[in-house]
Amino acid sequence: MDALVLTAVKQMEVQETKKPTPKANEVLIESKYAGICGTDHALYNGLPGSAAAVPPIVLGHENSGIVAEVGADVVDFKVGDRVTVDPNIYCGKCFYCRTGRPELCDNLSAIGVTRNGGLEQYFTAPETQVYKVPDNVSLKAAATTEPISCAVHGVKLLKLTPYQKALVIGDGFMGQLFVQLLRAYGVHQVDFAGIIDEKLALNKEKFGVTNTFNTTRDQIPADYDVVIEAVGLPQTQEQAVNATVKGAQVLMFGVGKPNQEFKMNTYEVYQKQLTIQGSFINPNAFEDSLALLSSGKLDVLPLISNEPSLKDVPDYLDGTIKDVSKAVVKVGE
Ligand SMILES: NC(=O)c1ccc[n+]([C@@H]2O[C@H](COP(=O)([O-])OP(=O)(O)OC[C@H]3O[C@@H](n4cnc5c(N)ncnc54)[C@H](O)[C@@H]3O)[C@@H](O)[C@H]2O)c1
Ligand SMILES: [Zn+2]
Ligand SMILES: [Zn+2]
């Protein structure tokens, strides 16, 4: 079978490899689609994602496919099931796992990061990580269940109520997911800030955004009960905190550089009683994400801009191909 192997930092090639055999508690999946995100860019460049990837390894933590074989002890899946995989595997034994915060696990491992993922024709996953995809959700859309789940986790860390006015900063795939999610969670107004006018317009026309701001020329008013920062730059982090009203919550979702800092008026944190909330990966969120896709409250297909094949992926990770909104790789036939 074909596998796209990260053989060393910044080196990747399609290799002919042996189809894996599932262990007793594992499912063998014929991979159909695999999304590429910032984590894959980091891993390709030798930086850690949620965990570190040690070559040789097959990336593809965002994926979907069809069950091809099940291990001897697997009872909940059968050959032919359409599935997607939660990549993050928590140890269940550490302090964080045992206090109900598995995303902070000291021994995190992940499919497509520390063990082979969906950028090969067949890959295995423990059955505990596998979710059936509802019939009315395409496998292409289902390959985005993992990033949707990151956004769902972020939203679950906030207290959302209908009176709130929300602002999303960042017009990438994640920011656009947050626009739809906040509407789905009942926030009555969602405004949107980015730098790409077409994306701002699309979200106004199609996804119920009220006001848009192009941060290269517009001033953002201090008007928001909920602000989601989905860029990860110091200036947008500063803009996020400055856009708040009293009692506001700021979700710091964007990933900055490890040594990054931004300027914040700490008196305002006190006086406005702000909540500055971080968000890391996506525990216990796959069922919510699949339900949001199945109910039509989330529409991800218009946000997927590129559908490369396995051999094209290095061009996406080394920056040869630019201005990609969201690439979802079509794996195999
Ligand atoms: N916390 C988590 O668990 C988690 C999960 C997934 C992604 N992320 C992070 O979320 C961020 C967004 O992810 P993405 O996949 O959408 O990334 P992306 O690179 O596709 O999008 C970033 C977007 O930010 C926009 N942008 C750049 N400068 C801006 C500015 N000054 N003002 C407004 N918008 C600006 C760009 O136009 C781009 O569309 C990244 O930092 C990513 O690492 C975090
Ligand atoms: Zn990802
Ligand atoms: Zn743990």
How would you portray this structure in words?
There is one protein chain. The protein is α/β, with parallel strands linked by helices and 333 residues long. The chain has two domains: 197 residues, Quinone Oxidoreductase, Chain A, domain 1 (Alpha-Beta Complex), CATH 3.90.180.10; 121 residues, Rossmann fold. Helices cover 22% and strands 26% of the residues. It contains nine helices and 16 strands. The strands form four sheets. Strands 3, 4, 5, 8, 9 and 16 form a six-stranded antiparallel beta sheet that branches. Bound molecules: nicotinamide-adenine-dinucleotide (NAD) and zinc ion (ZN) (2 copies). It holds the Pfam family ADH_N. Belongs to the zinc-containing alcohol dehydrogenase family. GO terms for molecular function: oxidoreductase activity; zinc ion binding.
Question: What attributes characterize this protein structure?
Answer:
9 helices, binds zinc ion, 22% helix, Rossmann fold, binds nicotinamide-adenine-dinucleotide, six-stranded parallel beta sheet, six-stranded antiparallel beta sheet, alpha/beta, 333 residues, Quinone Oxidoreductase, Chain A, domain 1
Short description, anyone?
The protein has 333 residues and is an alpha/beta fold.
